[in-house]
Amino acid sequence: MPGLTERKIEIVRMLVETAPDKVVGSLQQALAQTADDTALGGVRRLVECEVFDRTLRNAVLQPIAPMCVASGDGRLMTFPSRALTLIWKGLRALRPDLVEEARNPAEDAPAAVVLAVYDSLVAAAAIALRDGAAPEFRAVAEACDRHSPNGAALLASCLDLAPVVRRATQRLPEWIAHAGGETAAAARLAYKDAVEIADDAGPRFFHMLAAQLAHPWMVLRVISAVMDKPTERYLRDSELAGFGEAVFEDVDKTLADIGRLNADEGAVVGRACAKRAELVVQQVLELETCMDLQRDQGWGLRVVKQRASLANVVEGRLREADKATIEALPMGAASRQSRARRAMPRLNTPPEPRLVARAMTLLSFCDELRTTANYGGFSSTRAKVVDKLSEFITHYVEDVLDLIRTGEVEDVAIAAAFLEIAADFNHLVIGEKAGDLIRRRAHTALHPEHHEAEG
C-alpha cells in the first residue's frame, strides 16, 4: 500500500507539532505496531521523532516545563502552554549547535556535562527573550504578557533561576521525605544560590519547586526547612504567605465538597470523597508541622476550626451511613405465627436498588476512612457506627436464616437477595472475611440438600 504524499505528511506534521503532549503520546501508542511499509508507516515515524524531540525539550526546559500549562488557579506561577513550544522552536533556530549537543551527547559524557549544555540553552533562552529580536521569542513575550502582567519579564527571571532549580529538583524527593538535618542544610544552600542571582528570587524559587511536585502544597516542607520552621506571623507577613493561604483555601473547598457528597452517585464517589478527607488531614498536619502556630489566633485558630469542621462534616456522613444501611435492610413487625416479639426482617418485597446503592456509597466512604479516622478526629464516631452496624447486620442475618430454616419466608429468592446485600455491607463494615462468612451461611441455609449429601 502506498504511503501518504509529501503534502499530506506535511499536514500531519503540522497537526502533530501543535498537539498537546498527551495526544502525541496516545498517537505513539496507537501506531506502535504499524509496519514501515503501510500507509501509516510514515506517520508513525513522524510521531516517534516528535516524541523524542519533546522528551529532549522537556528535559532541557524541565525547571519551567510544569509551569507552562493551559490554565492555572491563579495561586501558583504559570505561563502559557505554547510558551514551551515557542522557546524550543526559537532555540533550535538560534542555537542549533547546542541543541544538537544536547540531542547527541558523547557516549561517555558525564551527567554534569550534559546538564551544563541544558543550562547553556536555558541561559540563551533568557537572553533571547529579553532581547526580543527572534520572532519565536517575541511571540513568547507577547503570549506571556497577555497571560499576566509583566509575564515575559517574569518568565525570563525564572529562566535565570533554572540551573539552581534543576539541581534542587534532583534532591526534592529527599527534601520532602526526610526533613531536617543535612536535607534542610542543602535546601538552605539552594535558596541562597537563588537569592544570589536576584534579591527577590525567593518566592520564584519556591513557585518553581512547587510546580515540580505532584502535590504543590508540599513545598511548605522546603519553605519550613529553609526558614527553620518559621512562626505563623513571620510567614503570614512575608511574600511567601500565599503558599499557606493556598492550603487553607484548598481545605475549605474540600470540606465543602465532602459536605455535598451525594449518596446516589455510587461507591466510587464515596471512596473518592473519603480520599479527599484524608487529603485534608494531611494538609492540616502539614500546616501544623511546617510552622509555629498559636492555637488561639490567626492561622493557628483557623487550623483548629478546620479540624473541627472536618470532624463535623465526616461525622455527618457517617451518621447517614448508619441510617442508610438500616433503611436498605428494612425491618417490620413480627408475624402472628412468629415466636419473636421484636421487629423482624421484612422479606415480602425485593430490595430497593436506590436504598442499597445509597448505603453502599456511604459505607464505602466509611470503609475508606479506616486509616484516616484516628488522625482526623472522628475515630470515636466511626467506631460507634461500625459497632452498631456490625451488631445490626449480625442480628439481621441470624433472623433471616432462622426464617428460612423454619419455612416462614414467602419468597426464598427475596431472602437470598437480602442476605447477599448484608454480606456486601458487612464486607465494608468489618472486612472481606465477614462478608464471605455470611455468604457461606446463606448457601448452607438455602441449599441444605447439598450439605446433607456432603455429610
Tally of helical runs: 21
Total number of β-strand segments?
2
User: What oligomeric state is this?
Assistant: single chain
Mean pLDDT: 88
Give start-end ranges of low-pLDDT stretches. none
Amount of beta strand: under 5%
Q: What proportion of the residues is helical, as a percent range? A: over 70%
- The shape, in one word, is globular
Radius of gyration: 31 Å
- Helix/strand order, N-terminal first: HHHHHHHHHHHHHHHEEHHHHHH
User: In which order are the strands of the major sheet placed?
Assistant: 1-2
Major sheet characteristics: 2 strands, antiparallel
Commentary on this structure:
There is one protein chain. With 455 residues, the chain is mostly helical. It has a domain at 250-454. It contains 21 helices and two strands. It has helices spanning 6-18, 21-30, 41-60, 81-94, 96-103, 111-131, 135-147, 151-177, 181-197, 202-211, 219-227, 232-236, 241-259, 267-290, 298-328, 353-368, 373-376, 379-405, 412-429, 432-446, 448-454; strands at 331-332, 344-345. Strands 1-2 form a two-stranded antiparallel sheet. The mean pLDDT is 88.
